Amino acid sequence: MSFAKTAAFTAEQQQLARVAKALAHPARVAIVQLLASKTTCISGDIAAELPLARTTVFQHLQELKALDLIRGEIDGLTVCYCLNTALLRQVQQQFLSFFEAATASPACGPEAACGC
Amino acid sequence: MSFAKTAAFTAEQQQLARVAKALAHPARVAIVQLLASKTTCISGDIAAELPLARTTVFQHLQELKALDLIRGEIDGLTVCYCLNTALLRQVQQQFLSFFEAATASPACGPEAACGC
DNA sequence: ATACTATGTCGTATTTTAACGTCATAGGGA
DNA sequence: TCCCTATGACGTTAAAATACGACATAGTAT
């Protein structure tokens, strides 16, 4: 990928893209949904419910953790992964604003300026 | 990337991940915002407003077009790119449901089962 | 008809993801 | 103590994304 020119975009665009990238894999979407559905959540359980190797799941967990979307607390031999709901609410708001602006735009058609 | 095991996830998870991937680059976020802000929209103008080469922008346009998030109609020497607002509204709904479920989950803390 | 302009296509080098196997570490129980 | 188990770290391979230059094409205007 590389994102060499990333610096030239606005902070909002970069932040939205970062989160979107975090959700850009079905495994990570599934992980978030899984954590949302369970109040208690152990790393091993997550790997067991996904069709991926344990280490691959761990890699996805690390990516989500890098963005602080999820948190992991070591509890003896197991680790409790949890959603960062506070951050998720902020992110939700960002996506909401983005889609509001995008869908508010007049669809291309006979009434549009370009007419296409 | 590869997504070899993609088939093992639900259609919803795959669809969400696909759209998220489309928005996983600041250039594509910027493109959608640009198209939303203008009622008329030409390919060349888009490249001019982004810090990327024309061909790179074209590539991003193609990716958005592959998901049908945007449409392009040839009009003589120029091309009118437009948002597919109908599809965007559907996508917005999917993201909304996803975030609703994620943020509704009780944050990890003293009241949670895991206690972390 | 010719030159100019604006778009699209191709090829490619570099970087990043994805997926997994193997090894390391550390807590708990026999 | 010794072993088992569960997690994390490392290394590697294959596939995909990113970015761009060079070329092709087609419409417009002089």
TrEMBL record, chains A, B:
Keyword Transcription assigned: yes
Signal peptide range: none
PROSITE patterns in UniProt: HTH_ARSR_2 (PS50987)
Domain of life, source organism: Bacteria
Listed InterPro entries: ArsR-like_HTH, HTH_ArsR_DNA-bd_dom, HTH_MetalResp_TranReg, WH-like_DNA-bd_sf, WH_DNA-bd_sf
Xref: PANTHER family: REGULATORY PROTEIN ARSR (PTHR33154:SF15), TRANSCRIPTIONAL REGULATOR, ARSR FAMILY (PTHR33154)
NCBIfam families: HTH_metalloreg
Keyword vocabulary terms for this entry: DNA-binding, Transcription, Transcription regulation
A Pfam family this chain is assigned to: HTH_20
Name of the protein described by the UniProt record: Metalloregulator ArsR/SmtB family transcription factor
Transmembrane parts of this sequence: none
Domain (HTH arsR-type) ranges: 8-103
